[in-house]
Automatic annotation (TrEMBL):
Main location: membrane
Keyword Transferase: no
Localization terms from the record: Membrane
Record's protein name: DoxX family membrane protein
Amino acid sequence: MTHLSPAATPATLKEPALSRLLFADPRLAPLWLILRVYVGYEWLSAGWGKISNPAGVWVGEKAGVAVSGFLNGAIAKSSGDKPEVAGWYAWFVENVALPNAVVFSYMVAYGELLVGIALILGLFTGIAAFFGGFLNANFLLAGTLSSNPLLFILATWLVLGWRVAGWWGLDRWILPRFGVSERPGALPAEPTSQRRQGDAVR
């Protein structure tokens, strides 16, 4: 069997100490917990408000009514001397989202709820934050500011700190099952068998 020589081994980039401290050091887990729970609560409240809406304009008999109004507003903002919505996004809204308003209504309502629950529990924090940021980006592209810029920034930070953002949460026990080190920033030890084979080749 042919083995790769040390010179053929792919190079790895060393992570700066500041980056490890901010995004992979469990000592900062309390800070990440505050950010994570705050963002999670905002999404949970928004999603639950839509799902429990008594008029059923998001989820229920009248599903799609609220999101249709929102999407039509986005299309209206794409015209004029200073449009707030880009033409390509207005095309997407008019030709894809609006004809499927009921589907998008359920996706938004339950998407917000699931993102909020996952962030509060610290479950697959990086993935949950990514989808939360994706929702924020779509709201921003549709011309809606509100709290979306702040939540988008915080979601980006949570994605960057995914290794430790859920340290005080379920990720602490779940991520190691997917090969993530229990000590963020530490490189996995090289198996003994591979070291012996490498020594034999040299």
